[in-house]
């Protein structure tokens, strides 16, 4: 009760406090309240009929209208204004949500007074994003919208007012727009409304918006740009009053260039200039103004004031975009405009661009006038004037304009200007035309000379412009003739200079002092042109007659060209003109290495070998840098030409010369016969005729290379060249020779499957069992296998070669053959091996051929072939097993193919294993897995032979007997141990029962003491209650207390009994678990005993506290009853 009211100073409660406490008890707020407590509250005048008495303040406030939301909105919609005013009172009036919704309804329906009352009474204007104001505008209630915007506090809602401006302008409610602006509307919608007003030509609205600070800079100055686009000066003045930024003014002035009415554009630009626009944008407008419209004189007159305004008042830069304004004025032939522009300080680059454009004008008068104006612009700057004069001369010369050059020559032209003009004129493509030559002649007359004239002369010679050549010949230096000769011959495919009529021109160049290199280069190009069919021999003869000619120039390049073309006549002509030994030797190598036909090469060799004395014959033994001996070059280029080989042998070439080759993997010295057995570039091979010619030339057929120890015969066998094998054997080649890998020619022929070569080698001297049969079996050459077996090669021979590692031919086939898609060939090869009495159960590393096939990279086809040919009869033979040591014990374990496949082979390829299993099962293969006789069989052993199975059965029987004996002994020991455990457990149970008995005695003693205490307390209470008038009530309270105490005692007893039962259950469980759990049971029992003792102590303390608390409450009640006896008696009589 202390939580609800505080007693007065005299310890009593007021009637309000007592009534509140009584109400709380009746509501269940005090679960342990007793009748005595209720009686004390009634004695304190607690009212059982009212929660509290209504005060005068409540009566004055009236009813609470906050719970009548729906009714309030109906009152707003259809009720009188007075009713709404009453419902909007400050105390217990309509809630805030009703006020906000009521304002929305009033605005929607156009109730001005109600809207004002709602706003005055706290309705929120921003409710639902200003829905009231928006709905009033959308419904056309302008007076309501104005009333809302005119209310106090509206200025703080600038975003809502901004939205309202857009809505009101769209509805043409201009008074509402004005009211919103006066209330402080700001924002993007207001700014966009200004743009819309400009577009709609609503000057009054635009002025109003600008006056109320609508931004004219929004969206990159859209308002100002729209005003310019409207061509309405009044609108432009209005928006300029909004103080546009410089960027806005710049964008607006650019729009003026699009106005077709020049006068309007003039006035608008003038207004913008007054507003402060300046800078490059005016230069851009100037260019745009000049770039549009017609080219007529009248149009220039119309645009001239605007251009003057931009230049004088706007300060437009005539150098903008490299003087584009000047260029446009020249293009349009607007002389007055050009005159105005050149007085605005144009730069030299701008004047240069204008001059270049001026040269393209068709009318000479305008061109001359414009050039005069442009040149006059730099009259105050001598350096710039000289530079501009040079530019003018250069432009006139580039345009090949003879009249302009004459006009410019009226002023003094410097020597540099003349040279610039000459260089510019000759840089054009048409300067050799009559018009161009007129300009060239004029410039030569003005003093043009030097390197530029020499260069022009070379150009004329290159293009064979005879008129230009004749004109310039008298002005060039002596060195120009050499350059001209080099220029004319630079393009050897140019047929013009090689024509007969030009021979005299070439001769004149030589006579006029063309240098040695130029003449020699001319000869090279003349030969190239002649052999290409575009030139004549006459020019070559002319050049060969020159005293400075040297046919050995550039290592005999002219002879090389003639040889590559196969032209023996020109080659002969050149050889007669002083070719030296080095040149002739190089020509010889060129003739045999260049891919020409056989007859052409023979003809060239005849020409080279029949000239003059020995000093002019080639050195047939010489090897040019980066090349190999001549015979090697010849065979590599012409591998099928036996005539060339014989011709080289006749000429005395060294046919046995050694050179570096790579027959195997290392470069080493070799002869031509070794190289002829290998393919040449382009997969070309030497023909039999070539090899016969080499053999006839006494080339050693038994030559052995230094490192690989190979011979031509071995190489021929490797390349499957049976024709070469036959030819070499016939020539006496050794057939039993072996290379560095201990491989013979028969080995390579068998490996390649060349049956013809194998038969040839088998007829000659050879070594048996040299691995040839293994290679033939591995590569599935059944015919070769049969031929080798026929010649006594043993099918059971374990080859000691490193690649065979002691496997037999059948094992090599099973383990290493690539038999994908070749099942028939594999079967044929196995049949051929079978004819040699093969032992199928021979093992390599504990595996026979069938097990090796299972480990092949393509096991299915080779396994199928073995099963179908040999192993189908022997599949379940006791010998058809693999021996694998046990990984733990190291003892041998035997596995059949199916078991081996399941345990070891191809574990990473499940699908392949399934197919192999199916393949083996088709031949009735069984699982077998066991240890040798006399050993313990592994777990999962299956398919044991009879003798091993009997021995294993005997061992199992012995193990079972031994196990039974050991089991009986263990059971006997266990029974003895259990008997000892039971006796110990019985003793422990006695101790536990003794402890439980002591616990029960202690509990009964506690219970007895509690009952005695309760009886004493009960007697004292009865005595005390008999002395008091309220003894009956006190007795009932004591009985209730005793009942609660008994309940607690009973609960404690029950808990003690439950705990004892739990302890007994735990002890029984411990008894069943045996000796290992006894220690744990004792520990738990000790914990339980301590817990029970603690609970009893806590119960005693709780009972003492409850008795003390109950006694204190009773004493308090008794004291209160003594203080008010009369009231208690009256209340008791009423009750």
Automatic annotation (TrEMBL):
Ranges where the record places region Disordered: 1052-1071
Q: Which residues cross the membrane?
A: none
| SMART domains in UniProt | ANK
Official protein name in the record:
Ankyrin repeat
Entry-linked InterPro entries = Ankyrin_rpt, Ankyrin_rpt-contain_sf, Multifunctional_ANK_Repeat
Positions of ANK repeats? 554-586, 708-740
Compositionally biased, Low complexity: which spans?
1052-1061
Q: Which PROSITE patterns match?
A: ANK_REP_REGION, ANK_REPEAT
Lineage of source species: Eukaryota, Fungi, Dikarya, Ascomycota, Pezizomycotina
| Ranges in a coiled coil | none
**Pfam families recorded:** Ank_2
The protein's matches in PANTHER family, at most eight in alphabetical order, are given as:
ANKYRIN REPEAT-CONTAINING, PROTEIN HOS4
Which first-to-last residue range defines the signal peptide? none
Going by the UniProt record, its keywords in alphabetical order are: ANK repeat, Repeat
Q: SUPFAM superfamilies in the record, alphabetically?
A: Ankyrin repeat (SSF48403)
The organism named in the record is Apiospora kogelbergensis
